[in-house]
Amino acid sequence: MTSRPIRIAPSILSADFSRLGEEIRALDAAGADYFHVDIMDGHFVPNISFGPSVMQSIRKLTTKPFDVHLMIAPIDPYIAAFAQAGADSITVHAEAGPHLHRSLQAIRALGRRSGVAINPATPLSAIEHVLDDIDLLLVMSINPGFGGQTFIPHAMEKIRQANALVGNRPIELEVDGGVTADNARALAEAGINVFVAGTSILGGNDVTTYAPRIAALRTAASTISA
Ligand code: DX5
Ligand code: ZN
Fold first, then answer.
1. Is 132 considered catalytic here?
2. From residue 157, how far is each of 4, 63, 161, 162, 164 by CA, in Å?
3. Going edge to edge, which strands form the sheet with 113-118?
4. What separation in Å is there between the alpha carbon of 79 and the centre of ligand 1?
5. In 3D, which of 225, 223, 215 has the Cα closest to residue 33?
6. Whole-angstrom Cα distance, residue 57 to residue 46?
7. Is 16 annotated in the active site?
8. E strand spans, 63-221
9. pLDDT tens readout for residues 95-140
10. In the CATH hierarchy, which top-level class contains the domain 7-222?
11. pTM summary value
């Protein structure tokens, strides 16, 4: 369990892009804490999403933080563009390049919160030496690239270990992939405080379902046993 505040972060990758603005406004009104913004390049991951100009357009629709998850390589040439487009936190993958520390420094130098993500096969030791350089640690519970995948069970144990590694540092612990109201409680007990959810919030793209789904996730994440 964690003393960090619970944050529900809908992934707009699952939005209906033909009415993206309406989706953002609906999620905002439905109680989203953060907006999780997935950036994919068709190189680091086998899918392409959108870039900083789309992000800049939707940024003005809400005052809630944009939690930007970069699944791109190389990273460094694009960090400034996402900062300028209104990212509040910028998360880079430990696997995406040889100079993770440099990328994290660049993010903080731009005044943004820095995050690092690790894929299911990446050991926690990959981020052990950058713990003082991050504000957020994202443990992937799917292989990145697509929404709608099933949570990889081994991620739960990895999250427990990540929570122990983070200790009392002011680092948010985030999970991404296959998060539902059914596993949110166990994830919270393992130490997660930021819950990314695409399909389990936006599936079906019926805006009337967003508030009850966000509430269900929040309730599940909040009812942890001591
Ligand atoms: C996938 C993205 C996720 C994705 C999660 O690479 O990083 O944020 O949108 O989708 P769900 O919640 O459907 O697994
Ligand atoms: Zn993501």
1. no
2. 19, 34, 6, 9, 11
3. 7-10, 194-197, 172-176, 136-140, 113-118, 89-93, 66-71, 35-40
4. 21
5. 215
6. 25
7. no
8. 66-71, 89-93, 113-118, 136-140, 172-176, 194-197
9. 999 999 999 999 999 999 999 999 999 999 999 999 999 999 999 9
10. alpha beta
11. 0.98
Instruction: List pLDDT tens digits, range 168-204.
Output: 999 999 999 999 999 999 999 999 999 999 999 999 9
Place of tokens 């991620």: 155
Contacts of 102 (CB under 8 A, 6+ apart): 76
Catalytic residue among 41, 67, 135, 176: 176
Residue among 34, 38, 194 whose CB has most ligand 1 atoms within 8 A, to mutate = 38
In whole angstroms, what is the distance from residue 221 CA to residue 225 CA?
A: 10
Ligand 1 pocket, Cβ-based, cut-off 6 angstroms? 11, 13-14, 36, 38, 69, 142, 144-149, 176-179, 196-200
Strand partners, 90: 68, 114
Considering the candidates 33, 38, 41, 133, report the single residue annotated as catalytic: 38
- Ligand 1 mean position to 185 CA, how many Å? 18
